[in-house]
Every structure is written in C-alpha cells, then in structure tokens.
Amino acid sequence: MLNDTKVRNAKPRERAFKLYDERGLFLLVTATGGRLWRLKYQMHGREKLIALGAYPDVTLKRAREKREAARRLIADGVDPSAQRKAERAALAESFEGVAREWLELQTKSLAPETISILRARLRSATDRDSRPMPASSSAAREAAVPCCMRRGPCCARNARAAARSRRAESPAH
User: Fold this and answer.
1) Residue 134 belongs to a domain
2) Which residues of 89-107 are buried (b: 16+ CB within 10 A; e: fewer)?
3) Lowest-pLDDT range of 106-110, 126-130, 152-156
4) pTM for this structure?
5) CATH code of residue 23
6) Nearest-CA neighbor of 1 among 28, 16, 19?
7) Which range among 50-64, 77-91, 102-116 has the greatest average pLDDT?
8) Is the domain of 54 the same as that of 111?
9) Can you list the alpha helix ranges (DSSP code H) found in 50-107?
10) What radius of gyration do the chain's Cα atoms show?
11) N or C: which end of the chain has fewer CB within 10 A?
12) Average pLDDT, the chain
C-alpha cells in the first residue's frame, strides 16, 4: 500500500514503472518524470484502464476517492470509461463545450491576459445559458461562439469602445 512519502519520492528510471496501491489503483512513473494515477479494472471479462489524473494535482487521497467512485460504478454495472466518453460527447454538444474547445484552440495564439478575459466571459455566458445546442454542424458551432469571443471587426469595435471608456474614466494628466 502506498503512502504520500513513497509517492512524493518516486524518481524516474530509464523505463516507466508502476507503484501499486490497492484494489487496482497504481501510480505510473514515466521515464520523463511524470507521475500519473491509473486504475485497472475488469468489465465484461475484459481488463480496462482509466486515468485518474497526475500527481501532485491529484493527491493520493483524491486518487483513492476517485477509485472508490469508479468501483461503485463498476458494481452497478456501469463502465467508468464509457460513462466518461458519454459525458464528453454531451458536453461537446452544449454551448459551454463548444466554447471551451474554441478557447483551448486560441491559447496558443492569444496573450494569457486575453485568455483570462475570455474565460471570465465564458463563465458568465454559461451561467446564463447551459442549454444544449440544436445542431452539431460546423455552422451551428460557429454561430454558438459569441461575438465577444470571435476575432474580426465586431471585436475590434468592442475593443476600441472599451479603450475609449477607460480613457474617459481615467484622470487627465
């Protein structure tokens, strides 16, 4: 059985290796130094494996909690891996899912401050409306991304207007 000290002190080797906890939970230590929680389980006579997160983002205690949640699903006859896939598919059909996907694509080309502003706008937009999108076509996805998150003339107008209002609010030099 693992403890936090063993997990924290796990050093990479030439090849990846596993540190086993119990009931299918183990820590995979990669050659590059990554420490990844995995759960091995059987469903319908087949061995399966799901990822539970990376250490230290997911602590030993949290990994055990996730393992127990997955084992409860298995006991109920539900495949945790299939359930995750279904949840991701459902999220991809909602405005929030499409907007998050779009935002992830933009992280490479936009400044971190811009990304944080867009995340805040996304949060406020999804708080107001979390209904599923009517269609999954690319045109529907494009229409779902709000104007304030798209590049183009509209966004430029909004930026100029925001800059003007900031100048008007700031004291004169």
Assistant:
1) yes
2) eeeeebbbbbbbebbeeee
3) 152-156
4) 0.58
5) 3.30.160.390
6) 19
7) 50-64
8) no
9) 60-75, 80-92, 95-106
10) 22
11) C
12) 80
